[in-house]
């Protein structure tokens, strides 16, 4: 049975990866819409032009997209617009894969979870690093007790500022903030997965705007977020957009996990061949595309669960689910408030 | 021996871990070393060919200046005794275990016209020197976010390190290096936020423990120091990541030393508590030479008593932050030791 998968919006840069992977699946039909693309201030193509470039079918409006009767919807809009599209998808009886962060406000995230629950729809959050081989091995080692008791984590998700391709990432209203919103959640998700969903208890964030002042950016571009969890775990996440524009690669994710029997460090995007070329440092990534495994997990769950049925629970609830999305969003929200007040925030 | 250090006699007080590195440096500089210690002076003297001084007073009388490498809790008392005897002092970090004591030591030294140099040796490690110079030269623009880390095989399984009243705990003992580095690289500190896991209970540090401290600086930079007393046998490691408006700097001691070994039978043990196996000139030697030359009338060294006191202030502010769960504003923080 072929699945009908709708791709809602090309606002997020990850939409291109999802589109090309979904478009290449023999047992999936894809339809896309990006009605807000025409008015976006982005230099690159959006809307029908972008769909043509990606080689996937396109309709002009979300009405047409949802009227198509998709089995699943992949939401890759601006962060602040996730809620509306997720609620429409749930109302249309479709399962949802929502780009991270789940939303820009906690209340939106709660409403999205409620809408999907009521519709019997899957709500999965697109955290692909969870599916990377280094992380899977780390998690297996933690679960096997090889690290002893884990007591501290340092995470970094540093990257280039996502500015040139999609300008909304630096729009406080559409993105919900700057680097704190864009880059805290991946590491927070990885920690969530290691702890089996420990809840944040206290969050402190220091943020500044020293980086990228030449671009007139008015959201925070640098940030350090320290989290105390209810199980005692201590973690700090550096979410700064601190990879220079001329860096050899976009950035990466790093996690150091320390336990009483030793520590493990992972850098899922590190595997690469290095060298030089006429423009300077060459960097040839050789790691898997983690989106492949993430999409396979989502679509496998959609296939097994069948159409969303209001009042029932999906047969398979793939992780990371909406609850993970909400816990990680709570960290972002607390970090934003802490950065404003200059004091830690208790949850 | 260099001409400027001819005829030098150093009074070494203490004979523990770090004493070996200092003795190696003093011997390389051609100095005569007279050692006094409650424990271990004889063995140290036999091993390196030093002279033992039976009492602190005779050691002070014999020495041109003293090098204090005793357990942290005795730094104040020994340093004050040396100041009273009119001897200049080189003192291992932390200068003292409380901000109040550091300021008392500095006041006594000033009154006696004696100099005190705290041994913040990381200021002499080439990677840290190079990074600071690059920042001062403007090579990465304005510093935005700096991260420092330092981990050691935990010394808190036994002995005096575990007793926070004697060691100060992982922040005062280990992170104090990076608190100094954060100040050295990013400038004066505006606020301090600190967390530690597991917490210290009834004055006893956990054996395995991590502390994370976030600083905001007057310059607008933010920085993070992470110190870990890790599982027994963990190799000593340190490093930094500094992001500026025009570039980044990174260093990790494990990856960037230019030497890696994978030896089986007979392999030497790696560094556990102290980065002793540095390549090239020992930073401990660089440091002690700079101090000794300064005490002989040469240029002042790159680290001063006030820097040692400032690092202790920050460590104490970190403790106050952990106790209150609040961010400590250094403007309101009483440097005599009471949390504002």
Automatic annotation (TrEMBL), chain A:
<protein>
    <submittedName>
        <fullName>Gfo/Idh/MocA family oxidoreductase</fullName>
    </submittedName>
</protein>
<dbReference type="InterPro" id="IPR036291">
    <property type="entry name" value="NAD(P)-bd_dom_sf"/>
</dbReference>
<dbReference type="InterPro" id="IPR000683">
    <property type="entry name" value="Gfo/Idh/MocA-like_OxRdtase_N"/>
</dbReference>
<dbReference type="Pfam" id="PF22725">
    <property type="entry name" value="GFO_IDH_MocA_C3"/>
</dbReference>
<feature type="domain" description="GFO/IDH/MocA-like oxidoreductase">
    <location>
        <begin position="135"/>
        <end position="265"/>
    </location>
</feature>
<dbReference type="Pfam" id="PF01408">
    <property type="entry name" value="GFO_IDH_MocA"/>
</dbReference>
<feature type="domain" description="Gfo/Idh/MocA-like oxidoreductase N-terminal">
    <location>
        <begin position="45"/>
        <end position="127"/>
    </location>
</feature>
<dbReference type="InterPro" id="IPR055170">
    <property type="entry name" value="GFO_IDH_MocA-like_dom"/>
</dbReference>
<dbReference type="InterPro" id="IPR051450">
    <property type="entry name" value="Gfo/Idh/MocA_Oxidoreductases"/>
</dbReference>
<dbReference type="GO" id="GO:0000166">
    <property type="term" value="F:nucleotide binding"/>
</dbReference>
From TrEMBL, chain B:
<dbReference type="InterPro" id="IPR000683">
    <property type="entry name" value="Gfo/Idh/MocA-like_OxRdtase_N"/>
</dbReference>
<protein>
    <submittedName>
        <fullName>Gfo/Idh/MocA family oxidoreductase</fullName>
    </submittedName>
</protein>
<dbReference type="Pfam" id="PF22725">
    <property type="entry name" value="GFO_IDH_MocA_C3"/>
</dbReference>
<dbReference type="InterPro" id="IPR036291">
    <property type="entry name" value="NAD(P)-bd_dom_sf"/>
</dbReference>
<feature type="domain" description="GFO/IDH/MocA-like oxidoreductase">
    <location>
        <begin position="128"/>
        <end position="249"/>
    </location>
</feature>
<dbReference type="Pfam" id="PF01408">
    <property type="entry name" value="GFO_IDH_MocA"/>
</dbReference>
<feature type="domain" description="Gfo/Idh/MocA-like oxidoreductase N-terminal">
    <location>
        <begin position="9"/>
        <end position="119"/>
    </location>
</feature>
<dbReference type="InterPro" id="IPR051450">
    <property type="entry name" value="Gfo/Idh/MocA_Oxidoreductases"/>
</dbReference>
<dbReference type="GO" id="GO:0000166">
    <property type="term" value="F:nucleotide binding"/>
</dbReference>
<dbReference type="InterPro" id="IPR055170">
    <property type="entry name" value="GFO_IDH_MocA-like_dom"/>
</dbReference>
């Amino acid at each position: 049975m072929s699945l009908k998968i709708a791709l809602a919006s090309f606002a997020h840069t990850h939409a291109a990866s999802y589109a090309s992977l979904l478009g290449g699946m023999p047992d999936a039909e894809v339809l896309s819409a990006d009605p807000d693309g025409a008015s976006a201030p982005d230099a690159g193509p959006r809307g029908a032009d972008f769909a043509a470039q990606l080689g996937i079918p396109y309709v002009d409006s979300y009405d047409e997209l949802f009227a198509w009767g998709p089995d699943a919807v992949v939401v890759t809009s601006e962060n602040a617009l996730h809620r509306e599209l997720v609620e429409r998808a749930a109302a249309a009886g479709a399962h949802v894969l929502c780009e991270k962060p789940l939303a820009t406000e906690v209340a939106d995230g709660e409403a999205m979870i409620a809408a999907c629950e009521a519709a019997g729809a899957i709500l999965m959050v697109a955290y692909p690093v969870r599916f990377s081989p280094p992380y899977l091995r780390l998690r297996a080692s933690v679960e096997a007790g090889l690290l002893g008791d884990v007591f501290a984590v340092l995470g970094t998700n540093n990257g280039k500022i996502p500015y040139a391709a999609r300008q909304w990432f630096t729009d406080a209203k559409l993105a919900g903030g700057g680097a704190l919103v864009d880059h805290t959640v991946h590491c927070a998700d990885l920690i969530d997965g290691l702890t089996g969903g420990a809840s944040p208890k206290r969050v402190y964030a220091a943020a500044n705007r020293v980086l990228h002042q030449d671009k007139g950016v008015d959201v925070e571009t640098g940030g350090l977020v320290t989290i105390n969890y209810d199980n005692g775990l201590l973690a700090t996440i550096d979410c700064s957009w601190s990879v220079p524009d001329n860096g050899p690669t976009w950035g990466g994710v790093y996690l150091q996990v320390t336990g009483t029997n030793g520590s493990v460090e992972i850098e899922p995007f590190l595997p690469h061949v290095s060298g030089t070329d006429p423009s300077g440092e060459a960097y040839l990534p050789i790691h898997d595309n983690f989106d492949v495994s993430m999409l396979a997990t989502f679509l496998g769950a959609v296939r097994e669960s069948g159409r969303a049925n209001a009042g029932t629970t999906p047969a398979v609830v793939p992780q990371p689910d909406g609850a993970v999305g909400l816990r990680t969003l709570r960290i972002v929200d607390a970090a934003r408030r802490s950065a404003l007040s200059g004091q830690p925030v208790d949850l | 021996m260099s001409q400027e250090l001819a005829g030098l006699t150093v009074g070494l007080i203490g004979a523990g871990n770090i004493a070996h590195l200092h003795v190696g440096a003093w011997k390389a500089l051609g100095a005569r070393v007279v050692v006094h210690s409650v424990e271990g002076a004889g063995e140290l003297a036999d091993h390196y060919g030093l002279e033992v001084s039976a009492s602190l007073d005779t050691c002070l009388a014999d020495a041109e200046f003293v090098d204090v490498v005793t357990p942290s809790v005795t730094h104040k008392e020994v340093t004050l005794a040396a100041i009273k005897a009119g001897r200049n002092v080189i003192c291992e970090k932390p200068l003292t275990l409380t901000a109040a004591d550091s300021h008392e030591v500095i006041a006594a030294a000033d009154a006696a016209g004696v100099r005190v140099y705290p041994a913040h040796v990381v200021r002499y490690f080439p990677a840290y020197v190079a990074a600071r110079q690059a920042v001062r030269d403007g090579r990465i623009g304005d510093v935005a976010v700096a991260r420092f880390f330092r981990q050691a095989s935990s010394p808190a399984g036994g002995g005096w390190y575990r007793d926070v009243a004697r060691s100060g705990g992982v922040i005062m003992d280990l992170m104090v290096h990076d608190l100094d580095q954060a100040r050295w690289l990013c400038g004066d500190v505006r606020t301090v936020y600190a967390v530690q896991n597991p917490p210290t209970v009834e004055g006893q540090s956990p054996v395995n423990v991590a502390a994370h401290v976030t600083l905001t600086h007057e310059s607008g930079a933010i920085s993070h120091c992470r110190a870990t007393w890790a599982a027994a046998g963990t190799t000593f490691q340190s490093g930094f990541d500094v992001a500026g408006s025009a570039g980044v700097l990174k260093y990790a001691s494990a990856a960037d030393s230019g030497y890696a070994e994978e030896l089986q039978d007979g392999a030497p043990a790696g560094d556990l508590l102290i980065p002793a196996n540095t390549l090239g000139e020992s930073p401990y030697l660089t440091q002690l030479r700079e101090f000794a030359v300064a005490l002989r009338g040469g240029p002042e060294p790159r680290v001063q008593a006030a820097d040692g006191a400032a690092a202790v202030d920050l460590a104490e502010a970190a403790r106050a932050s952990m106790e209150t769960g609040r961010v400590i504003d250094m403007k309101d923080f009483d440097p005599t030791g009471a949390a504002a």
